[in-house]
Amino acid sequence: MAAKLPLSDVLSAIDRKDFNWYSNLDEEKKKAWSSWLFIRYVSSAKGKDRDDLLLNTNEFVNKNYGDIYKHEELIWKLMCLTSTGKKQFHEWIKPPNSKIKTDAISQFVSEAYPTLNGREVELFLKLNNVSDLKQMAIDMGMSDKEVSEIFDKKKKKKKK
What we know:
Layout: H1 7-15, H2 27-32, H3 35-42, H4 50-60, H5 65-68, H6 72-82, H7 104-112, H8 118-127, H9 130-139, H10 144-151
Helix pairs in contact: 4-6, 7-8
């Protein structure tokens, strides 16, 4: 079974600026290390130092992460640089959701504009009301039945 790295140990070592912590890990624990995962924690904290931690993480680690992600020990040392040297409470930041919503209207917009990503589809939906989108579907030559399937779907209540 693969070794696990306790979250509290890792974050505590970063807060203490323990630059040698990663190099002192055995090979099994180094395999369990995920820099991307811990960057999510390191960049957030509660308290007066939260802005500094975020700016430091962006400046030292995130800025060139794509170039250095294979150099785990370097990333560790950069993460230690982000710390203020004081114990912090680090909370998880959920990664952005790039998935497109699966409702019929979002699907329609995605098919009409295939170059839009998930966030752009959401923005498009916020900027346009349903009647505008219905008219767009009609203008695209969709039948009344197709338009109704996309825009007039109502949730059916399940009978017990």
